[in-house]
Amino acid sequence: MATTGTGWREEIGPGEAERFEALAARLVPESSREGRALHRYGQIGLAGRFEVLDGLPAAVAQGLCARPGRYECYVRFSSGAGAVQPDRIPDQRGLAIKVVGVEGTKVIPGLEAAKTQDFLAILPSTFPFVDPEVFVGLVVAARERGVRGLAGFLIGRLGFFGGLGMLAKLARSMDKGKQSLAERTYFVPVPIRWGEAAAKLRLRPVERPPTPAALPRGEHHLADELRARVAGAPIRFAVDVQLYVDAERTPIEDPTVQWTEAVSPFVEVARLEIPAQDPASAAGERLTEVIEGLSFDPWHALVEHRPLGSIMRARGVAYRVSTMARGASSELEVVPPSELGSG
Ligand code: HEM
To answer: Does residue 22 belong to any structural domain of this protein?
Structure first.
């Protein structure tokens, strides 16, 4: 019998690589030269510390978490749309982390010597699409024809009731901008390798006040709240890992299935600490500029954390194309935030 986490298998369809190249080309239009094809609006970019805990059980002491350690990292809170829009418009929210100074072989050919390990998280604990083609088709339909395009696309793909059901599900999963981004729990809802095992991740706020913070008013009230909050106090998240159990209850290729805690409990492996800092200072503004020019990509990973499943494989192409279109900085040249200097 396989030990917890291992025994997983990927199913790679015929002609997949070519299909994913074509999808990426559709997803990344000419206008993406000005910014990210998705998650364009960076709510705020911050410097942080990623601390791997001591005394972890062997099953989770893998890859970056194989031994205790402290790393510098970049953190980017974002909104999911491919255009900048006010925070009151329902949207997905992202939390991307780039851990810097990570030794070990990385996955992307040509970038094996990179010193970074990225983790990309969003609010829902599942991803509503099995087929990357449906996700990309939907993004393109919404971009070109708005909500009508979205509904038309989903009904065309999933039938009348299936399409409307998916539309309602997507609407429910969108964040309405009513709670601080520092007080939310984020998930990596698609699996990555965790050594020989496979895993999903969760980032959980360590201090969650009994009453949610009051939010300011304004076009970008979520960023404004984060800026004010971090100027006065640190923000901390616990990083939890949930291991694969079996193909039925914790599938690799179907991210619509919830990996329940009853089947696989989360185990805390690390802490993300964002120390108090002033994003409005000259150094803070320079940091934001650098972070906007970085590329956060789940494939910027140790071989022990290679992304798994068709959604991840499609992302492998899409992020490269989006990153190249906008001329993001090379992964081999990323330095820790403390080495940025003022220039
Ligand atoms: C087939 C599915 C997906 C595709 C094609 C896709 C595509 C993209 C692209 C093109 C970008 C912009 C990349 C750049 O220019 O740097 C992006 C950003 C992002 N995506 Fe995805 N994505 C997919 C699924 C997901 C999933 C499942 C998550 C869940 C964690 C996710 C989270 C994010 C986040 C957090 C960012 C912003 C990264 C940053 O702050 O720079 N995406 N996505």
So the answer is: no
Please state the length of the chain.
Answer: 343
291 lines ligand 1 (CB under 6 A): no
CA nearest to 239, candidates 257, 259, 266, 210: 266
Q: 58 alpha carbon to ligand 1 midpoint, in Å?
A: 31
Q: Is 94 in the pocket of ligand 1 (CB under 6 A)?
A: yes
Tell me which residue range forms the domain holding 207: 38-123+175-327
156 within a domain of the structure (yes/no):
no
Tokens of 259: 């990996």
Domain contains 23: no
| Close Cβ partners of 60 (under 8 Å, ≥ 6 residues apart) | 194, 199, 241, 243, 267, 269
- Number of domains making up the chain: 1
Write down the pTM of the prediction.
0.96
Separation of 312 CA from ligand 1 center, angstroms? Answer: 10
Atom of ligand 1 nearest to the CA of 136: 5
Closest CA to 298 of 192, 195, 200, 139: 192
Say how many Å lie between the CA of residue 326 and the centre of ligand 1.
14
Please name the residue that has the structure tokens 């509503």: 128
pLDDT in tens, the chain (343 residues): 456 788 999 999 899 999 999 999 999 987 778 899 999 999 999 999 999 999 999 999 999 999 999 999 999 999 999 999 999 999 999 999 999 999 999 999 999 999 999 999 999 999 999 999 999 999 999 999 888 899 999 999 999 999 999 999 999 999 999 999 999 999 999 999 999 999 999 999 998 777 888 899 999 999 999 999 999 999 999 999 999 999 999 999 999 999 999 999 999 999 999 999 999 999 999 999 999 999 999 999 999 999 999 999 999 999 999 999 999 989 999 999 999 975 5
Residue 163 lies in a domain: no
CATH of the domain at 321: 2.40.180.10
Helix axes of 16-27 and 132-173: crossing angle, nearest 10 degrees:
50
